[in-house]
Amino acid sequence: MVLLERASELDRADPIAAYRDEFIIEDDFVYLDGNSLGRLPKRTIERIRTVVEKEWAHELVLGWEHWLDLGVEIGDRLAPIIGASPGEVALCDQTSVNLYKVASAGLTHSGRTDIITDRGNFPSDRYVLEGVATSAGGTLIFAPEDPSPKVIESLMTDSVGLVSLSHVGYRSGRMLDAPAITAAAHAGGALMLWDLAHSAGAVPVKLNEWGADLAVGCTYKYLNAGPGAPGFLFVRESLIGAIQQPISGWYAHADQFAMAEEFVPKAGIGRFVVGTPPIVSMVGADEGIQLTAEAGMASLRTKSLALTDFFIEALDQLDPPDVELVTPRNHEARGSQVTVRHTEAYRISLALRRDGVIPDFRAPDLVRFGFTPLYTTFSEAAMAATHLDQIVRTGSYTEFDETRRGVT
Amino acid sequence: MVLLERASELDRADPIAAYRDEFIIEDDFVYLDGNSLGRLPKRTIERIRTVVEKEWAHELVLGWEHWLDLGVEIGDRLAPIIGASPGEVALCDQTSVNLYKVASAGLTHSGRTDIITDRGNFPSDRYVLEGVATSAGGTLIFAPEDPSPKVIESLMTDSVGLVSLSHVGYRSGRMLDAPAITAAAHAGGALMLWDLAHSAGAVPVKLNEWGADLAVGCTYKYLNAGPGAPGFLFVRESLIGAIQQPISGWYAHADQFAMAEEFVPKAGIGRFVVGTPPIVSMVGADEGIQLTAEAGMASLRTKSLALTDFFIEALDQLDPPDVELVTPRNHEARGSQVTVRHTEAYRISLALRRDGVIPDFRAPDLVRFGFTPLYTTFSEAAMAATHLDQIVRTGSYTEFDETRRGVT
């Protein structure tokens, strides 16, 4: 009870607590899965209604006069959130497709054949990168999960043209040392590609400060863009004109509506866009990005760390048996999620859902709790810790079957 | 006036006229650009509101329990419209990305290096196919616009692994002889890939009857899915397990949530899906596809031909000076649009828009009028013909500047 009281105090003192009111929250879920799918911002309802019921309905094809370059325009609004400059970011396609595009372009540009990633990288990243390396006649080299700069340094060879890692691990919630890893890649003559899926809107990202060459990321997690909303890609300015992605769509053409014989790519970031963007899903990303920009990454990071600190302290205090903290305690290595390990993680995650706490399970033994600073409260963190402790202590997860099914 | 009276009669006698009421039509446009962006079905408003304001808002991440396989489920609903079987079609990504995926997979499978397309194919198709052929060490061979089976036959060599054409030309509105061209490709040992962007929902498509191997298409034209809604791809059943597309995303994995080390593709059409689909845009496609299925392609084709026949007859009767009919008069070679040529096509298209008629312009000298049988009326066809005739006769297009700008 002391825990919940302390949480209430922290909620009352939270300077960005008001942002929770920007979201539709009509359920009683302790929703700690915003690192999978963010909640619905209220303003997005109106924006999507407008784009469907006014723009599509009444402007019809003339809507393209203002929809056409939305991917690059939204990219400009996203740029400051990830430490990029306007003109370096575009919203388009899904994250895996974007990864394929920029990884292919980067590896080709390097004139080398191998790529380094890590065992813990998101499956799509590992699979896509393996395909890119293999088709270049090279190999995908695996570092252990969440590698240090030294590990990357030790794996560099003259064949490595690209290092591609997730800035924050989707399993561990660990945040890597991006500046040092980027430097290690560069020292070895490779380009550095960051996957920001669990970073954008969650932690401060400084692509240009780090010297990053390429990045991709997703918008439906901490940026609250809506289910499956398009991803984004980043190419540092000096590299944009020098590399060419493999899918030469008409949107990338310097004179799109000339429909010319020859493919002449745009000079700017638009050359990495392929085809007609899914406008109704795009505008959700636009609203989520603008909301994040309004709150500001500094405030969001402060609250994110306070939330995860509080959750970790609660676990320390409650000390649920056999629950091991996976996410680092030190701030500089922590994303905006806390992952714990338990051999019964799958059934524990089901029991948490039964009790109204929504985390997710990652095989074989992880439960991850995502904290979205825009709407997650300290009270939710306290309740999640309390439920986790009780479920483990009472063994109430044993009512569930061990067989894993469907979406986890 | 006789023309408009005759049109009214035809509208009254139209057995599928009621489908126009399925759409939001609150403007006075004579909208003949449904071959660029289809109108908004009323039911789509409710579906999108539901997916955003109920499912995303309240189910949150649990929505993925029913969203996850939507691409394949919608593909099954689209299959009969394009003469495919369930399990052969998936909705995912944009058309250009899908073309890249299946063209790469097909060419690799063929063990050859060259691709045949035609000069008149849509820019994205030409650019993407050129990239695919080049990266295989081969060449993209160009047939003249809208080629006959004989032309394709004459271009076949032992290096040609893939023939990829648009079934209905986006410029000419000409429908190709798909069965004979498919046979010619096969006779030369190549796979046949059809782009159905201007066919799906517009004309009868019989992929399996033709013996087609691969196809892609878009949903936001005659299928009325909404601006930039995802495209679709088709792979004939016996080829699905035999080919592998280059972008190995986690959605394609046989056991997606195992997040396993090794990439093991799904057995079914799902192996051609890459990443998380943009759900809000996907459901628009679902509604548009279901509406098309309800009306039935036979009725839609009958009305489409009646509309384009009537429009062509009106032009014959009015005989606007220097306006040349580009689209074939014979039914078996006609899609669902009528294209005319005039040296002042650009300014004529602007004058038509001024007068409330929305066609579009295709450089350098084409105006195309799209007829969507679900909602286009004979009266609209009559008005478009009348305006075109008057604009050309009076030269009222000369009030516009010749400099082309923006979206055309």
Layout: helices, strands, pairs:
The structure is a homodimer of 408-residue chains.
Chain A: H1 2-13, E1 30-31, H2 42-59, H3 64-67, H4 70-78, E2 89-91, H5 95-110, E3 114-118, H6 123-135, E4 140-143, H7 149-155, E5 160-166, H8 178-187, E6 191-195, H9 207-210, E7 214-217, E8 232-235, H10 237-240, H11 279-295, H12 297-318, E9 324-325, E10 337-341, H13 345-354, E11 357-358, E12 360-362, E13 366-370, H14 378-394
Parallel strand pairs in A: 1-11, 3-4, 3-5, 5-6, 6-7
Antiparallel strand pairs in A: 2-8, 7-8, 9-10, 10-13, 12-13
Describe the fold and architecture.
Two copies of one chain form a homodimer. With 408 residues, chain A is of the alpha/beta class. Chain A has two domains: 2-31 and 297-399, Aspartate Aminotransferase, domain 1; 46-294, 3-Layer(aba) Sandwich (Aspartate Aminotransferase, domain 2), CATH 3.40.640. The first copy, chain A, contains 14 helices and 13 strands. Chain A has helices at residues 2-13, 42-59, 64-67, 70-78, 95-110, 123-135, 149-155, 178-187, 207-210, 237-240, 279-295, 297-318, 345-354, 378-394, and strands at residues 30-31, 89-91, 114-118, 140-143, 160-166, 191-195, 214-217, 232-235, 324-325, 337-341, 357-358, 360-362, 366-370. A seven-stranded mixed beta sheet of chain A has the order 2-8-7-6-5-3-4, with helices on both faces. In chain A, α8 links the parallel β5 (160-166) and β6. In chain A, α1 (2-13) packs antiparallel against α14 (378-394) and α2 runs antiparallel to α11. The longest helix of chain A has 22 residues, at 297-318. The two termini of chain A are 31 Å apart. The mean pLDDT of chain A is 96. At the A-B interface, α2, α3, α5, α6 and α11 of A face α2, α3, α5, α6 and α11 of B.
